[in-house]
Amino acid sequence: MISFDEASAILREAAGPLEEVRVAIGEAAGLRLSRSVEARIDAPRFDVSAMDGYAVRDTDLPGPLRIVGKSYAGSQAPAGISQGEAVRIFTGAPVPEGADRVLVQEIVETRGEQLETVGEYGEARHIRARGSDFREGETLLDAGTRLGPRQLVAAAAADCAEVWAWRAPRIAILATGDELVAPGTASDRPGALPDSITPALAEMARQYGATIVDSAVAPDDPDRIEELAARLLDRCDVLVTIGGASVGERDFASRSIEGGNFRTLFSRIAMRPGKPVWCAKGDGERFVLGLPGNPTSALVTARLFLAPLVTALAGGDYDEVLGWRELELAEDLPAPGPREHFGRGALSKGNALPFANQQSGAQALLAKADLLLRQTGGSGGLSAGQAIQALDF
Ligand SMILES: Nc1nc2c(c(=O)[nH]1)N[C@H]1C(S)=C(S)[C@@H](COP(=O)(O)OP(=O)(O)OC[C@H]3O[C@@H](n4cnc5c(N)ncnc54)[C@H](O)[C@@H]3O)O[C@H]1N2
Ligand code: MOO
C-alpha cells in the first residue's frame, strides 16, 4: 500500500488541463480562463454623473444658475457649459465639458430654467472620471481565474462576447451493487438500499467545475459493469465508480475496468477510510476513479481525490482545493491506528470538534461533517486544545 501523499503526487502529475475552448460569456460560468481578459473599452467611457441632479461649475456656486440642457445615460455628451449655467443630469450620464460638480437634486430648487441651491453641497463632486474603474487594454482577469458571478461582471464589463477557457471535465458515475435502487424505491423491497452516493458525487464534482454527463447503477455482474463502464467512458473524461473496490467476491468493478487501455495509477492506500480507492488512466486524458462503496469512505475519498482531479482537469491547481489549516481540537481525539486517518468533525466556535462515530458506512452524520481531521498513521492520541490539520469537507 502507498501513502496518501504518494497517491496524491501520482494523480497530481497525471492530471493537467483539457483543451482550450472559446466560450460565449453566457456559457462560461464556472469555467477557468485559459487566457487573461483585457478591457476593450474604458470604464466609465467618459466622465459621468454618480447622482441624479445638475452638472455645474464649482466656482459658480452657490448660484443662482440657468439650466441650459439635459444629459441622460446613453445619450451623446451635451454641449459644454459656461459661467452661470447648469445641465440637468442623471446617474451614468455624460458630464458636459466645463462642469466639475454635480449637485444632487435634493439640495436644489428649480423654477422654470432657474436653479437655486437650498442645502449644503459638501465635498463630494459626484463625478466618476473616465477610466477611473479600468482603462482600455487593462487586464481585468488573469488566466486561471474561475468565472463566478463577480468575475462574470468584470468579463462582461470588459466588453467581451467570448472568453478563452479550459473545457469543463465531463464526469460519469457508475454505482455498483445488486442491493442498490433509486432513492424512494427501497422501503417496499426487502434488502434494497437507496443509492445514496451518486447524487452527492455529482454535486461535489459540479462544485469543483465538472459537468455531469451520465450515471448508471450496475448489478454485481462483471459483464454488465464492463458494458456500462465502456458506454459511459465513451462520453466522459472521468468515470467515477462506486463500490466493488475492495476484495469481496462480488467486487468486480476494479477488475472489469482496469484492463483495456487503462493503466493503474494506484490501488489501495494506507488511509482510513478509503483503503480500497484506486485510479487508472487511459488514452487521451481519460481517468477512472474507483471509490469505496461505504458512503463516508466514498465522500471522503471524493473530497481528497475527485475534487483536486476535477480542479486540475478544469485548468486549476491540483493543490488549490486541498487547503489544510491548523485548528484547535475542541475535544480529545483517540490515536488513529496504523493507517493515516481522515476523521470527520464539525467546526465549533472556530475549533475542530471530532465525532465519536467514525464508521466509514455512516450516512446521517455526514450531513453535519464540516471538516476532515488528519492524523498520521501510528501517531498517538491528541488532547483538547492541541492542534490538528483540518480541511473543509
Ligand atoms: N475482507 C475485507 N473486507 C473489506 C475490506 C478489506 O480490505 N478486506 N475493505 C473494507 C473497506 S476499508 C471498505 S471501504 C469496504 C468498501 O468496499 P467496496 O468498495 O468493495 O464496496 P462494496 O462492498 O460494494 O460496498 C460497501 C458498502 O457500501 C454500500 N454501498 C455501496 N455503494 C453504495 C451506494 N451507491 N449507496 C449507498 N451505499 C452503498 C454497500 O451496500 C455496502 O454496505 O469494504 C470493506 N471490506
Ligand atoms: O477504508 Mo474503508 O474506506 O475504512 O471503510
UniProtKB/TrEMBL annotation:
GO terms for cellular component: cytosol. One of its GO terms (biological process) is Mo-molybdopterin cofactor biosynthetic process. Catalyzes the insertion of molybdate into adenylated molybdopterin with the concomitant release of AMP. This is Molybdopterin molybdenumtransferase. Residues 172-312 form the MoaB/Mog domain. It comes from the Bacteria. The keyword Flavoprotein does not apply. The lineage of its organism: Bacteria, Pseudomonadati, Pseudomonadota, Alphaproteobacteria, Sphingomonadales. It catalyses: adenylyl-molybdopterin + molybdate = Mo-molybdopterin + AMP + H(+). Keywords: Magnesium, Metal-binding, Molybdenum, Molybdenum cofactor biosynthesis, Transferase. Its cofactor is Mg(2+). Pathway: Cofactor biosynthesis; molybdopterin biosynthesis.
